[in-house]
Design brief:
By secondary structure, the chain is mostly helical. It contains 5 helices and 2 strands; from the N terminus they run ββααααα. The protein has a two-stranded antiparallel ribbon. One of its GO terms (molecular function) is dolichyl-phosphate-mannose-protein mannosyltransferase activity.
Length: 179
């Protein structure tokens, strides 16, 4: 199967695997011959970007937990750490199993090849969010102000919104002659 399509050559809308997690290059399925009307494969940018950050956060938090446990500092009860480690590791391995093999292929690849890995990335983000929610529940309510949460969320969105203008305005102009 890996060699069946090995000689497809280059394609203008082909993308390398390192572009996929942040949707670096989109894939138009249909282009109007007379104008800029198009049907394009695009994921939810906020979810894909945040889930990509979630992978890095999972690795960093896991590294911190493992280092602290090695020094016999147990921040989490054993059962909670076991749940974090098991669920996160299974989801990370699932994501890697659906993502890394494409780095070995020498054929033209497209964004749709990454779609089987996306659910694992999103479920790992959910595990990271649940872990932080459980961690935040340990603190008194007075230290976690909803105002602080809203301010940090709105400042984060302020930097994302210019990139998230309506899709037709931020997609490059693609014509049928480009395919």
């Amino acid at each position: 199967m890996a060699t069946a399509h090995g000689n497809l050559g280059e394609h203008q809308f082909g993308a390398t695997p390192h572009n996929w997690p942040l949707m670096g290059k989109l894939l138009p399925y249909w282009l109007d011959e007379k104008g800029n009307a198009q049907v394009t494969l695009i994921g939810n940018p906020v979810m894909w970007w945040v889930a990509s950050v979630g992978i890095v956060v999972f690795l960093a938090v896991t590294a911190v937990h493992l280092l602290r446990r090695r020094r016999e500092i147990f921040d989490l009860p054993h059962a909670e750490f076991h749940q974090w480690w098991t669920s996160g590791s299974v989801l990370l391995v699932g994501w890697l199993a659906h993502y890394l093999p494409y780095f070995l292929l020498s054929r033209v690849l497209f964004l749709h090849h990454y779609l089987p890995a996306v659910p694992f990335k999103l479920m790992l983000l959910a595990a990271v969010c649940e872990h932080f929610y459980a961690w935040l529940k340990r603190f008194p309510r007075t230290t976690l102000s909803p105002i602080h949460t809203l301010v940090s969320l709105s400042s984060s969105l302020r930097h994302l919104l210019p990139r998230l203008r309506p899709v037709p305005h931020w997609l490059p102009v693609l014509l049928a002659s480009h395919s």
